[in-house]
Amino acid sequence: MKKLCLVLFVCLGITLQSQAQMGGWKSAKGDTTSLLFVTPTHFSFAFFTKSTFIGTFGGTWSAGGGGVDLQIEFNSIDKSQVGKSISPDVEFQGNTIYVNDAFGSRSYEQLDGGDSQLSGVWQISSREQNGTMNTITPGARKTIKIFTGSLFQWVAMNTETGEFFGSGGGTYTLKDGKYTENIQFFSRDNSRVGASLSFNAKVEGNNWDHSGLSSQGEPIHEVWTRK
After folding, report:
1. Into which CATH architecture does domain 120-226 fall?
2. What keywords tag this UniProt record (predicted)?
């Protein structure tokens, strides 16, 4: 576990050196895939195989002192890292990131430049129950969605206690009022991997109205607000 946490620190630091490296990244080695999400304010890194969710780690980042400062908001592997700040050494080459670590050498290829109507970080702000939209007050326990130009990830966490409640993600499309998720990893139930879910979607400014059926077939109607 300690080695995996170190890998996450190193890889994320390498990726976040430049704002030119915004977007989604992918690395595949053996049967393990890792997706890296980089927005102007947030980052996330997920490891998984076709049959197993390995872990995820992320938070906010900022440039400072000639390097990058990472503030950890969630870590499914080691919750003691939540709330800590690190400043790793970083480097990259064009549209490919080369990494050498405890798992050997890997290369990350850029999938997109972060260009999408949904790109960025969103937090759920209201949910319909019994026909009424109920406001969800922001707090330490929260659910966010991170989007690049082609990748999405949701994460449920508590930033005060370090608790991790779940995550899932993969690729997505948004076209003609339809938002479709293609699930590549899901921490709670790996049998969902490979499924595609479509929802009605309407984005107006910093609000995203999202409705349809959940992965369990239950009707949902939510509003998400851009952070």
Report:
1. Beta Barrel (2.40)
2. Signal
Task: Output the DSSP codes for 128-161.
Answer: EETTEEEE----SEEEEEEE-SSEEEEEEEETTT
* Nearest-5° Cα angle at 129, 124 to 134: 50
User: Mean pLDDT of all residues in the chain?
Assistant: 86
DSSP track, 182-199: EEEEESS-GGGTT-EEEE
pLDDT of residue 101: 46
Which part of the chain is CATH 2.40.128.360?
Answer: 2-110
For strands 219-226 and 120-129, give the pairing: antiparallel
d(CA 161, CA 145): 20
67, β-bridge pairs: 64
When pLDDT is cut at 50, 70 and 90, the band that residue 224 belongs to is very high
For residue 19, what pLDDT is reported? 52
φ, ψ dihedrals at 199, nearest 5°? -135, 160
